[in-house]
Write a structure and sequence with these properties.
The protein has a five-stranded antiparallel beta sheet with strand order 3-2-1-4-5. The protein starts with a strand and ends in a 7-residue tail after the last helix. Strand 2 and strand 3 form a beta hairpin. It has five helices and five strands. It is an alpha+beta fold and 207 residues long. Helix content is 50%, strand content 18%. It is elongated. About 7% of the residues have low confidence.
Length: 207
């Protein structure tokens, strides 16, 4: 059965990416599965495709054709000199700001001896673990292999890994689009910011 969807990720050098159908499902697509004569697609292109079992046993797109190309922006020299869109900059800046605020709150809480040093070490250790999971998930996504589950990412972020998780999302530009995942990430971040602020300001104590 032929489906339609939008190309939401594309690695032009490697020739692979992901197409999202109208139900919100993402399918791996490789350049070799485009029908003859088709040019390389671009993010935003509308595609038609069929579904088959990929090499890893998961559904993948085949017989891919561009039904409607994404419009090419008519950019002026002024546009080229500008930084990326304000929305993208805002999202990236917000992740950086949240991670920085949490780090400063942890340092303040340790400096004022309101929490032990191991408390900060827990954030550092779990943050590193979270960052590695996001990196692996990004690599797996690009290669069409089994992914790290979103539940596992959220659990590690909640268990003191949120600083590393936010940093990894920004560095790898990963998991920053899906509304439900983004909303859950920011809910976890808000919980940690409030908790760390309460500890750093002495409203609560871990003693």
């Amino acid at each position: 059965m032929t489906r339609s969807g939008e190309l939401v990720q594309w690695n032009n050098k490697g020739g692979y990416g992901f197409v999202r159908d109208q139900a919100g499902n993402d399918f791996y697509v490789h350049i070799s599965k485009l029908v003859d004569g088709q040019l390389r697609p671009r993010i935003g292109d509308q595609l038609t495709f069929s579904i088959a079992t990929g090499r890893n046993g998961r559904p993948a797109a085949i017989n891919v054709a561009v039904s409607q190309a994404a419009p090419i922006p008519n950019r002026t020299m002024r546009d080229i000199k500008r930084s990326p869109s304000s929305l993208s900059s805002y999202k990236v800046g917000l992740r950086t700001a949240a991670a920085t605020v949490m780090t400063l709150l942890i340092l303040l809480a340790i400096a004022t001896e309101r929490v032990p040093v191991w408390f900060g070490g827990s954030y550092a250790l779990m943050g590193a673990a979270s960052a590695l999971l996001y990196r692996f998930d990004k690599l797996y996504a690009l290669s069409g292999r089994w992914r790290v589950s979103e539940t596992n990412l959220h659990v590690v972020d909640f268990c003191f890994g949120i600083i590393g998780g936010l940093a990894a999302q920004e560095v790898y530009r990963h998991k920053t689009v899906k509304p439900r995942f983004v909303a859950a990430t920011w809910t976890i971040a808000l919980v940690h910011v409030i908790g760390l602020a309460a500890l750093a300001l002495g409203w609560v104590s871990v003693a």
